[in-house]
Amino acid sequence: MKPVIALVGRPNVGKSTLFNRLTKSRDAIVADFAGLTRDRHYGDGRQGGREYIVIDTGGFEPEKPTGIVAEMAKQTQAAVAEADAVVFVVDARTGVSGQDHDIARYLRSAGKRVLLAVNKAEGMSESPALAEFHELGIGDPIPVSAAHGQGIRSLVEIALQDF
Ligand code: GDP
Ligand code: MG
Questions:
Q1: For the chain, how many structural domains are there in total?
Q2: Which keywords annotate this record (predicted)?
């Protein structure tokens, strides 16, 4: 079975852009992957000879457990449960938000391997601004640019290094 990578984060940080960057075919045929349900957004990916499944999620707002927001939270929790590695996506342009802290708290309790991808970091890979993301307690921020295809290979290598 291929390793499963879930993309988690608040709306607009670039999860779907990263999903498209990580996958070559969208909506992978999940029938082959026992245990994966069909109501999330799966893709098949390959980087440097490694094959994997990616799950995109809609978002996560744990403070407002109603309606569509609760549905997104549920979707995220289900994706995390299915994942071998979780990529927590944050936004280099906006910095750390309260919602990022809420998601970080949830992910620290989830007992999964979690990586912190700081997206929209094109031209910022050496920027001291990235250091603030350490406060999320998820580990070293990994700068990426989903839109420009930067940092993607090393993100996947780190995500899959134990598989
Ligand atoms: P999602 O809500 O987390 O799925 O975010 P989207 O993938 O829909 O992206 C939200 C916005 O961020 C869109 O306008 C994207 O074009 C933009 N975006 C995504 N990745 C990057 C990036 O690497 N750099 C920049 N500058 N913008 C990005
Ligand atoms: Mg999206």
A1: 1
A2: GTP-binding, Nucleotide-binding, Repeat, Ribosome biogenesis
Assigned token pair, 156: 């996947």
Domain of 19: which CATH number?
Answer: 3.40.50.300
Q: Is 74 annotated as a binding residue?
A: no
- Predicted complex ipTM: 0.99
Hey, whose CA ends up nearest to atom 9 of ligand 1?
Answer: 14
Ligand 2 centre to CA of 160 (Å) is: 23
Can you read off the two tokens belonging to residue 84?
A: 């071998």
Residue with the smallest CA separation from ligand 1 atom 15 is 14
Domain with 64 in it: 4-159
- The reported pTM is 0.89
- At 63-114, the pLDDT tens digits run 555 555 666 678 789 899 999 999 999 999 999 999 999 999 999 999 999 9
String of DSSP letters for 38-92: SSSEEEEEEETTEEEEEEE-----TT--SHHHHHHHHHHHHHHHH-SEEEEEEET
